Amino acid sequence: MNTVERNYFKPTFILVDIEGTTTSISFVKDFLFPYARSRLKDHVEKYWYEPEFKEDLSLLKEQATQDLENNVEGFIPILDGDDAIKSVVNNVLWQMDMDRKTKALKSLQGHIWQRGYEEGLIKGHIYDDVEPCLQKWKNLGKSICVYSSGSVQAQKLLFGKTEKGNLLPLFSAYFDTNVGQKIESKSYTRIAQKLNCQPKDILFLTDVSKEARAAAEAGLQAVLLSRPGNAPLSSQDYKDFLVISNFNELNVL
């Protein structure tokens, strides 16, 4: 199949990754993550007795129990009593240092970011080509969906308060790691089931080749993004997938 033929797609659903695909990796790694870290202690102290944080704390304690049972290296326990707040902060900082993707951490980070978005301290970064293309595809009758390791809550915050305004009306569904890890093909099978469609009817856009391969293994169409700051792709990736530098290079019918 030549490059021209590979560049034409007629999906029913377009599934987009966020980091490195719609949004700069540097925004996530160099702004969002450090922001959550810098606000962590104040957030825990301020909302300690609030129902929302109590739910986050419950998730953190469940994760801590699992980590203890699994003898996770470097594990920092969550304590009760006078040291409770300090131990929670230390546990979360440890998870952040490990770049973990636990449900507990993602939920807490999402709530910290939510306060930042609400206070106007955070505006989600979106590449210039993204909004016009998503709008064009939506006008063609395509359903645009999101699949990210960040929580659905965090996804909606980012797209709801971007530098380009509120983009939430463009999207019809959101998926996070509750459907599975992004490098596992069964996750994409579950997404197809939830969308009530055949896997082949979904076009997945991502910057991570392992994710593209998992999606393709499940029967999805997959395209790789090579944006500035993204991890380099291999020569094999270029052979196996169409690689584009922005959404404008994709021909959706």
Automatic annotation (TrEMBL):
It catalyses: 5-methylsulfanyl-2,3-dioxopentyl phosphate + H2O = 1,2-dihydroxy-5-(methylsulfanyl)pent-1-en-3-one + phosphate. GO terms for molecular function: acireductone synthase activity; magnesium ion binding. Its EC number is 3.1.3.77. SUPFAM superfamilies: HAD-like. Binds 1 Mg(2+) ion per subunit. It holds the Pfam family Hydrolase. It comes from the Eukaryota. Pathway: Amino-acid biosynthesis; L-methionine biosynthesis via salvage pathway; L-methionine from S-methyl-5-thio-alpha-D-ribose 1-phosphate: step 3/6; Amino-acid biosynthesis; L-methionine biosynthesis via salvage pathway; L-methionine from S-methyl-5-thio-alpha-D-ribose 1-phosphate: step 4/6. Belongs to the HAD-like hydrolase superfamily. MasA/MtnC family. Bifunctional enzyme that catalyzes the enolization of 2,3-diketo-5-methylthiopentyl-1-phosphate (DK-MTP-1-P) into the intermediate 2-hydroxy-3-keto-5-methylthiopentenyl-1-phosphate (HK-MTPenyl-1-P), which is then dephosphorylated to form the acireductone 1,2-dihydroxy-3-keto-5-methylthiopentene (DHK-MTPene). Monomer. This is Enolase-phosphatase E1. It comes from Clastoptera arizonana.
